């Protein structure tokens, strides 16, 4: 009887110690979590760091914004918190951390459209927030979390196993959406746009300077996600191969984006495209029918040279990049050797 009581008391002490276990960033994530289960990307309209002690005034503002309910998968929000909470839970086993991560996963499951796409924001659908959003890998980040839940890997093996099956179904729907949104030009599959109308699945405009296009950036993350699918279907293989071919075809050879000193400008520097035989780059946006790189200002007018972009946007947006290099040189060849 005494041994039994000791065991019970020991279990209670362990449970109590676990509930008191703390990590500053994780505790702050609990403060910021919305009732929907998701998180937002800003405080007082600006990006913030969880690794800080918030004042009482901050906490009042946080509570107010939490009550407003804005939650998103933009800028790695929600994905970032889920992954951090399950990671820290393994060393700081506070059950609140795990519960919050599981609620975040349920948020992703609720946010997904029946057609498999994800809006940038949920439940708020104002402006372009309702569009299916690949921009900055938003939807791909969500799907990678859900695939890890389904496969019980990459730290997500600690979550409730009952989440595995709905997560697996969500991934299947996500793959279908990806296949249905790959842009076809004159019967040939190419890449993907940053965002799509959630009903028609047509390429859509988001911010004023984010016009319908084929993206040299977002296409990469989508292909990488498709390549992690076990036993890929013929349709998935075709989508991957076509996407890689398109990225190869639109590569801008022998060029780089250079940043140079520009005294008297607001930031003290400027950007331009220069010749460089050792460098290849890709444009963020290509015209859907012509594959011609283009840019846009905040007036939504399309231009075709970086120099035509207003200074603020020219120096404040990733118009060119080398996003596909690793995919083309390493990841796709390895995948192709395995599956083709």
Automatic annotation (TrEMBL):
<protein>
    <submittedName>
        <fullName>PelA/Pel-15E family pectate lyase</fullName>
    </submittedName>
</protein>
<keyword id="KW-0732">Signal</keyword>
<dbReference type="InterPro" id="IPR012669">
    <property type="entry name" value="Pectate_lyase"/>
</dbReference>
<keyword id="KW-0456">Lyase</keyword>
<dbReference type="GO" id="GO:0016829">
    <property type="term" value="F:lyase activity"/>
</dbReference>
<feature type="signal peptide">
    <location>
        <begin position="1"/>
        <end position="21"/>
    </location>
</feature>
<dbReference type="Pfam" id="PF09492">
    <property type="entry name" value="Pec_lyase"/>
</dbReference>
């Amino acid at each position: 009887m005494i041994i039994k009581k000791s065991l019970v008391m020991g279990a209670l002490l362990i449970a109590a110690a676990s509930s008191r276990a703390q990590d500053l960033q994780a505790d702050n994530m609990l403060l910021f979590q919305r009732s929907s289960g998701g998180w937002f990307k800003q405080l007082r309209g600006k990006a913030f760091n969880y690794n800080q002690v918030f004042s009482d005034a901050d906490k009042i503002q946080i509570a107010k914004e939490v009550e407003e309910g804005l939650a998103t998968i933009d800028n790695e929000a929600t994905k970032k918190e889920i992954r951090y909470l399950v990671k820290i839970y393994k060393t700081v086993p506070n059950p609140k951390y795990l519960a919050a991560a599981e609620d975040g996963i349920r948020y992703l499951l609720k946010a997904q459209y029946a057609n498999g796409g994800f809006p940038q924001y949920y439940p708020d659908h104002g402006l372009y927030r309702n569009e299916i959003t690949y921009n900055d890998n938003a939807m791909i980040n969500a799907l990678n979390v859900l695939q890890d839940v389904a496969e019980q890997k990459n730290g997500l093996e600690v979550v409730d196993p009952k989440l595995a099956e709905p997560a697996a179904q969500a991934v299947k729907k996500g793959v279908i959406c990806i296949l249905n949104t790959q842009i076809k030009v004159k019967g040939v599959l190419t890449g993907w746009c940053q965002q799509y109308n959630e009903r028609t699945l047509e390429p859509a405009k988001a911010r004023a300077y984010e016009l319908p296009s084929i993206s040299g950036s977002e296409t990469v993350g989508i292909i990488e996600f498709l390549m992690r699918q076990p036993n890929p279907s013929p349709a998935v293989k075709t989508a991957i191969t076509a996407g890689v071919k398109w990225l190869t075809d639109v590569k801008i050879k022998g060029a780089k984006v250079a940043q140079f000193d520009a005294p008297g400008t607001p930031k003290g520097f400027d950007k331009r495209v220069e010749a460089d035989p050792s460098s290849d780059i890709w444009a963020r946006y290509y015209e859907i029918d012509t594959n011609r790189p283009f840019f846009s200002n905040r007036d939504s007018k399309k231009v075709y040279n970086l120099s035509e972009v207003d200074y603020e946007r020219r120096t404040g947006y990733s118009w060119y990049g080398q996003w596909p290099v690793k995919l083309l040189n390493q990841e796709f060849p390895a995948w192709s050797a395995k599956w083709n």
